[in-house]
Amino acid sequence: MTIRSFNPPVRTLMGPGPADVHPRVLAALARPTIGHLDPAFVGMMDEVKDLLRTAFRTQNALTMPVSAPGSAGMETCFVNLVEPGDEVVVCINGVFGGRMKENVERAGGVPIVVQGTWGRAVDPDQVADTLARHPNARLLAFVQAETSTGAQSDARALAEIARRHDCLTIVDAVTALGGSPLEVDAWGLDAVYSGSQKCLSCVPGLAPVTFNERALDKIRARQTKVQSWFLDLNLVMGYWSGEQKRSYHHTAPVNALYALHESLVMLAEEGVEAAWKRHAHHHLALRAGLETLGLELIVPESERLPQLNSVAVPAGIDEAALRARLLSRYNLELGAGLGDLAGKVWRIGLMGYSSRPANILLCLGAMASELDTMGYRADAGAAIAAARAVLDQAA
């Protein structure tokens, strides 16, 4: 057997991530590779940090991309901030809250779970009550944008509660960054992590993180070594900080960082608030089309994440079969449900470069056509017209 060069099919990515990568970002990937300690590359690293501060809406000095996927961003926060025996309140309202709990345990901490409902935001009253009952807790961890359900929690309110109880916050903003309001400084968020492959229109493999001085004070005061050498911020900071000088820590993913730089330049050109408005506007157009088809979004409107839409599968429809048809016939990828929602929902992403009118109309037309052939009456023309009516309005 002869193995030849791999040429992937051209897909439209409207699942939970990765999202479509903008052509400018793909072009940036192909630029000449230089050394990761080259002065030109070091200068670009400083620009990436500045651009990330703009995206996160922060002045935090320690703002950088971890050289690994979003899950490593999560682990960076937990292994640095959690010491053995630390009590950590963890909010679980989907898959990724559960992963937070696992990180606490692996770091030797003691998780105190606030169990929420899948498809709903974290309940601030539940959090306040839990913190009142556990006065020794010093960390509150929650997911702002729960990718497994499409629920968006009130990060500002949760951070305010944490501060009243002298707790630091660890916030999962993997699906939020660049897609919906995220105000790290204004909301007083202490440690936040994200990913490159969603609303930033970039390739997978990098995890932007930001830590404020309160979080860094806790890291500096650790009594034990960070369990991960690679993710130990005391070491990584020497690579990402300094005036045009870096200590060697690891070989950075040079071309992937070119891509992140380009994606952040594009976000700055569009404007962060304008990007939030674009995602919200396109969500309303998709919602109008889905509702015209008689399909239901499972998250209440006030708690809905615009860029990740969980749609209930109608009775009698094989959700996996529909996704397979969309992929094979339209090169269109939607996401399946996870955990408690497995087999019950489709997850439709409108993230970054995927959040554009052509994708919305393709998705609605393709879904309607295939649902109709599967025995569910669906009018593609009406769904597309409903979406177009919203798209034609000013964002």
Automatic annotation (TrEMBL):
N6-(pyridoxal phosphate)lysine modifications at: 198
One GO term of the biological process aspect: glycine biosynthetic process, by transamination of glyoxylate
UniProt keyword annotation of Lipid biosynthesis present: no
Domain Aminotransferase class V: 44-337
Positions bound to substrate: 347
Annotated EC: 2.6.1.51
GO molecular-function term, one example from the UniProt record: alanine-glyoxylate transaminase activity
Protein name listed in UniProt: Serine--pyruvate transaminase
Any coiled-coil regions, as ranges: none
Known cofactor(s): pyridoxal 5'-phosphate
Pfam families: Aminotran_5
UniProt similarity note: Belongs to the class-V pyridoxal-phosphate-dependent aminotransferase family.
Highest taxon, organism lineage: Bacteria
